[in-house]
Design brief:
Blueprint: H1 10-19, E1 34-36, E2 43-45, E3 47-51, H2 68-71, E4 77-81
Antiparallel strand pairs: 1-2, 3-4
Length: 82
């Protein structure tokens, strides 16, 4: 099965997280998306990098005029809690 989604790289996800100090970007939420874990060597993450314009045809707000690079860019991303 072929994946036709323009997914974010791990680096882009990291940038999106750091740009908002690991808080949900929804103005009605703004809760922290990471915190302590029962294992002192780990942290719990409930955040997710979401595309503003969909990563694949048929998705919400998909823009066929965007290049794959634009779709995968931090400029097309937002950090939200799950």
């Amino acid at each position: 099965m072929t994946n036709n989604r323009d997914e974010f790289s791990e680096e882009t996800k990291r940038v999106l997280t750091l740009r908002v100090a690991a808080r949900c970007s929804n103005p009605e939420c703004r809760k922290p998306t990471s915190g302590p874990n029962t294992d002192p060597k780990k942290a719990t993450n409930v955040g997710v990098a979401a595309h503003i314009c969909a990563a694949a045809p048929g998705g919400p707000r998909y823009d066929a005029t965007m290049s794959p690079e634009e779709r995968k860019s931090p400029c097309n991303g937002i950090w939200l809690c799950q």
